[in-house]
Design a protein that fits this description.
The protein is built from five helices and 23 strands. By secondary structure, it is of the alpha+beta class.
Length: 384
């Protein structure tokens, strides 16, 4: 860990020195070019006009190219000083596109907590009333689930045994943030640019090649107006929720950065159907690596069931003139969702496992300098 810190400090010093050096070189280049340009004019005056036109064209080309180089260099310096990362010609994740399922020797930071409590900022957030504790599983193996841009996404090979109960309106209000914050607290490693979160329905959809649509549920996207109008408070901030006649929310169903508490009643409640379900093997056969990653049973070829785990994604179902506020989960070889709260002010409390996911910033970490990606010889991970 000390070595990693020293590496980061060395890089910080090198970057400052590099910026100063580039600025000096740009200034010297500009002065030198100006001097050369002026000396050429004197030569032309002495030697007459013969060949002047051709030389002038060449001179303009040199000056134009040099000015472009200077402008480009200055722009990069401004970006660095402004905290921006210079764009990459090719995303670093491209090399992992065909390596889904490969093992990576990832380890959470030693300083991470070993447990995470559902009591946060002075309140119990799961709706359970009594604080729950989620424990770190130190024996997890990690496999590549996705690579996009400069981000590499890993998922735990198996599913940790600790369950989390989500209950009622507050379970729906805070389920996404609780799951994500717990996985980040327990499994992150900042020294290699790695953050944690819980698996989301979009992750499993990506593995299966599924796009939510009416093909999964004929009511998907339809608007409904329930006769009972109680709702968890976060619903008014969701893109598909309308409170008292207005769709004003911008929050996606797998997004949450703030805590919400309680429920309330609207004079007019509307919303769009966002629930769907599908069987994993209908999209990827049970012998595929994608199916293995989704089920968390990679060593059980053909398995159609596994430990059920939460997906950090909310959804809404409509039936019998009521909204059913649900959280997605993966279980029994399928993607489902379970009720937490109903718009007639009724409460439910399912309990499933967490499923940690790790996102690695490839601008901060090198992957695969050694290792083949096999279970017995996983890719290495080191500070870039």
């Amino acid at each position: 860990m000390k070595k990693s810190q020293n590496q980061r400090n060395d890089k910080g010093i090198t970057l400052v020195a590099l910026i100063i050096t580039i600025i000096i070189l740009v200034i010297l280049a500009a002065v030198s070019i100006s001097a050369v340009y002026n000396s050429k004019i004197v030569d032309y005056a002495v030697n007459g006009a013969t060949g002047y036109a051709g030389e002038a064209v060449k001179e303009n080309e040199i000056m134009s190219g040099t000015e472009s180089l200077i402008d480009s260099t200055v722009k990069k310096i401004e970006d660095i000083l402004g905290g921006k990362t210079p764009p990459q010609e090719e995303s670093l994740g491209e090399q992992f596109k065909d390596k889904i399922g490969a093992y990576v020797d990832y380890k959470p930071a030693d300083t991470n907590p070993t447990t995470y409590s559902t009591t946060q900022d002075g309140a119990e957030r799961s709706g359970n009333g009594t604080a729950q504790t989620i424990s770190k599983n130190t024996g997890l193996k990690w496999r590549i689930m996705n690579a996009e841009g400069n981000k590499l996404t890993l998922v735990s090979e198996t599913i940790p045994s600790t369950n989390l109960t989500l209950r009622g309106a507050d379970g729906y209000n805070n389920g996404v943030k609780l799951l994500d914050d717990a996985c980040n607290a327990l499994y992150k490693n900042s020294s290699v640019g790695a953050t944690g979160r819980n698996a989301k329905v979009e992750d499993i959809n990506g593995l299966m090649g599924v796009t939510p649509s009416t093909a999964l549920n004929s009511d998907y996207g339809n608007e409904y107006t329930p006769s009972n109008k109680w709702y968890p408070r976060i619903f008014q901030y969701e893109t598909w929720g309308s409170i008292n006649g207005s769709y004003t929310g911008s929050l996606g169903f797998s997004e949450q950065s703030n805590w919400y508490s309680g429920n309330t009643q609207a004079s007019t409640l509307k919303g769009k159907w966002s629930y769907y379900t599908y069987t994993l093997s209908n999209y990827k056969g049970v012998s595929t690596i994608q199916h293995a990653l989704a089920t968390g049973q990679p060593n059980s070829t053909g398995a159609t069931s596994h430990t059920t785990y939460w997906l950090a994604s909310r959804c809404v179902y409509y039936n019998y003139n009521n909204f059913y506020f649900r959280m997605f989960y993966a279980g029994s070889g399928a993607v489902h969702a379970d009720d937490l709260y109903h718009s007639y002010d009724n409460t439910y409390y399912p309990s499933f496992a967490v499923r940690p996911v790790i996102e690695i910033d490839l601008l901060k970490a090198n992957i695969g300098e050694t290792g083949t990606g096999e279970s017995t010889d996983p890719y290495s991970i080191a500070v870039r």
